[in-house]
Amino acid sequence: xxxRMIAQNILRRPIRTxxxxxxxxxxxxxxxxxxGLTHGMLHDSARRIGxxxxxxxxxxxxxxxxxxxxxxxxxxxxxxxFAQLNHVQAVTPVLFQFDSSGVSLIWGIDMExxxxxxxxxxxxxxxxxxxxxxxxxxxxxxxxxxxxxGQTLHLLNHxxxxxxxxxxxxxxxxxxxxxxxxxxxxxxxxxSIFFIKCTNPGYTDDVIHSIxxxxxxxxxxxxxxxxxxxxxxxxxxxxxxxTVLVAIAVMIGFLxxxxxxxxxxxxxxxxxxILKSLGATKGYIIELILREAxxxxxxxxxxxxxGTWAGRMxxxxxxxxxxxxxxxxxxxxxxLLALTGSLVGxxxxxxxxxxxxxxxALAYE
Length: 365
Prior knowledge:
The protein has helices at 2-12, 14-50, 78-83, 111-118, 139-145, 178-185, 204-214, 223-230, 236-267, 269-277, 282-318, 328-354, 358-362; strands at residues 56-59, 74-75, 88-99, 104-109, 123-126, 134-138, 152-155, 158-166, 174-177, 190-191, 193-198, 219-222. The protein is α+β, with helices and mostly antiparallel strands and 365 residues long.
């Protein structure tokens, strides 16, 4: 009986039903896509750092763990001192440059030392730098921006020639010569970070200990430790960001379901009066409203899942460099949050409906 009443009420009000379902779907999609984007981009950054083949990274004191948010206070000459330490095979400096016009992080690299540490690039087209204003781009960036070898890119307020397109997975997506990056940043003989390759990965801790003795205040991490930090779910800034956006999404779903159920009660006052005059209890009325809200929410969750997967495919098609990680854990959390918000939003209208006087309800116009 309750099921038939719920189905009829949902079908009789198609616009309200569609709006309610879409509100829950948007809530679910916001939660999953926001979490998927933030975790995906961080994990992708971690994988690209791991793909360098380095074992140790050295930054200035109190440097941000988010590369690119660090200035360039490290003297290049420190690389010679690191190279003299036991168990160090190669050292390469990198100078970060942020191109605000294209929102891109560009790495200035010394090709000779870079090749010793990373093993060099795998070129799909073109080749290494041949001039000071050459740039290398990875294949994902090239596909997203339709870049070809020989094309001119406007970066850092200068024109750069695309010298080569390389396989993605080694640090940045854009690379320019270190001397050019120093000139543009007006930071001569400076680097943002050093990547160090050990003679054997088993000596990583020994090399870190030696560097900390040499430069006790500097930030020295193994690449594996850095990757574990980026893939952690306990990053304070990330957790706060996700919490705020999830709260906004839940509030949207709560308010729409609340408004939907509240207007439903106003429209069905006479119907509720008839039910109560026929002996329907307060619990029966509350169950009826909450179950209707639950059905709308479940439909919204299903639509939200479908929309999220479609959104992910659209993002990958439009922005190949963006990574979205959708997990079963956050899909379950999104559904639980949506269901909780919907039931809470429907509870007050349900309680109000249960407290209607049958006589007043039957006389309602």
